[in-house]
Fold each of these.
Amino acid sequence: MGVTPDLRVSLGRLTLPNPVMVAAGAFGYGLEYRDLVDIAQLGAIVTRSLTLAPRMGNPPPRVVETPAGMLNAIGLQNDGVDAFLLEILPQLRSYGVPIIASIAGETVEEYTHVASKIDRAEGVAAVELNLSCPNQARGGMEFGIEATLTAQVVSAVRQATTLPLIVKLSPNAGDLVSIAAAAVEAGADALCLVNTFPGVAVDARERRFRLATKVGGLSGPAIKPIAQYHLWRVHQALPEVPLIGVGGISSAEDALEYILLGAHAVQIGTANYIHPTLALEVIEGIRRYLSEHGFDSVEALRGALLDS
Ligand SMILES: Cc1cc2nc3c(=O)[nH]c(=O)nc-3n(C[C@H](O)[C@H](O)[C@H](O)COP(=O)(O)O)c2cc1C
């Protein structure tokens, strides 16, 4: 009796076959999972954040499990944008899955340099700008923490590429709505909310921090209500802006919650470590839910949260 729902979603100029992506940094470059997961079925693969030069990342220990989540301090380990374009991208694009290149930088110039290299490559569907990066010129303050800095880096990257531009917000700004508005004003086609939350973990027995860097980013189910709160608030303030929800998704139901709150699409991060095929199960679960509840598309469900 159910309808066959249309899973396609459009985030401005970017159209995806379904709304479920794997999040930056939590699925490698995607290729690492090709023997475990039918990666061609994903809504999109977001790469780990790419920088101009290769980065070794932080010293270990740089990952620690916490209640209902994990703290990581990987430190943007990656092979650099040139190696990605030369060695990884040609293999990845043969799968036909939309590829979203996440970019990071310590200066506005680094971001724009990386973005312009990606712009010249073939087979990248969009750029995702990771704003949770320390700004060298401002003593290590995150770009995404202030509206003026956000606008500065977004408009510079906007000029460096004609690809659809997703801006991924840091939850560490006091008021995400003003940052979101600044990013859209400066040229973002869509917003992704949110990156990890700062946290520490202590080993009382050893009387030490559990991470070599002391501070890491908290992700996983522990952050879901806060991430959903931010997404919902930004959706209320900017209802026309395509939003991608990320934080703590570990089931189709979690993903559906984000869509009901106004998300066009979702990303799955930490849960991939426990369950690498989760994204495919979430796609199937969304399809089943839409069909069982008589919605003919994801669009029809978006924001369809009852008020009382
Ligand atoms: C190990 C690890 C590495 C990550 N690396 C990146 C990264 O390179 N760039 C980025 O924008 N976000 C990165 N993230 C953040 C995730 O993309 C995501 O925003 C966050 O983990 C919240 O989603 P989750 O609760 O589903 O994991 C990383 C997260 C984890 C756990």
Amino acid sequence: MADNYLVEPDVGFIKEVSALGGQDVKKCFQCATCSVVCPISPDTQPFPRKEMIAAGWGLKDRVLNSADIWLCHNCGDCSTKCPRGAQPGDVLAALRTYAVSEYVSEVKPFQKLAKMVNDPKALPVLLAIPAVIFIVLGLITGLLDFTPEGEEIVHAHFFSTWLVDMIMIPASIFAAAAFALGLKNFVTRMHENALRDGKTDKKDLDPVGIVRGIITSVPAIIRHDKFNECTENRERSTAHMMVLFGFIGLAIVTGIFFVVLYGFQIHGPYSQLNPVKWLANVSGVALVIGSILMLKQRLAKSDQISTYKDWYHIGLALALGLSGMLTEMTRLAGMGGLSYFIYFLHLMFVFSLFVYTPFSKLAHLVYRTVAIGYNEWSGRK
Ligand code: SF4
Ligand code: SF4
């Protein structure tokens, strides 16, 4: 006999999902075409039809606590084939954005920041926060010098490396705390959901098993195996891969230079012949080209819903890549004032990447990876 389920619709939730790009959710007439055409949906309890029903009925907890909204790679194949134009791919993207703020909602400052990150009117404030922190802290500590001496352009003479790390290290700890809280809630609720729906036989959560599942899945994630199963929008895979590799490369470079600076006391600027510099330059170029391609593809796709969260996500990746490359190029061209100014902008974007990422669309890098690892461990039926 089928289970009874008491429907308690959350109307506010439907409105918020609509505002985040899921405005066509109510057009769904449950034909299931989307679940059939989705190249990566499993045979048992496939998505995204069941998520469309749950979202349309306002069953917030049921849909947000499902791993399946994160397994979707937003390829858009289902939206292209949907006979009602209900845009299931975009509805799932809106659900993910909503979910990210929901997972951290018990900490009010996190919840407030999550709302701001997805509100275009809050962008000037979000950009002003790092600018004010850098200038005020720099002036108080004397580690910011608006008129650095000497012919050679050295960015650390303008913003001391100490000042940068004094801000970036707490910023990264803040991001780690937000992700830790979000992931704890996400994994707990996802498991309760999976047990209730009979998607797993494993009663107790096993963090080590989930980590093993993540490690097993990493090669397929890096190769974009799932993304490459898309048909209509496969070209998006290349741009996505370039941006991902750009971020990974730059994270490696930052880690190496951190160790070189504090472990071996070797200060920049580093030679262009240094292999780590090559990696930095190649990663920067990949980030810029990948984000431009993403921008171009989104602008060309008139049948895809693009909201502020999508432009913010692409805009930040492009701003980071461009400001990093231009800082370097203007330094090599001997344009001191301009190079220091662009470096300042670059630091603002890096701060935004650390502090705002746990609440933005970019958080999918973490949540999707964990959902895939959880599925691997739980033996999703
Ligand atoms: S979203 Fe579209 S394709 Fe999917 S069930 Fe609804 S109407 Fe059918
Ligand atoms: S957007 Fe792509 S991956 Fe996501 S549900 Fe639709 S077809 Fe599947």
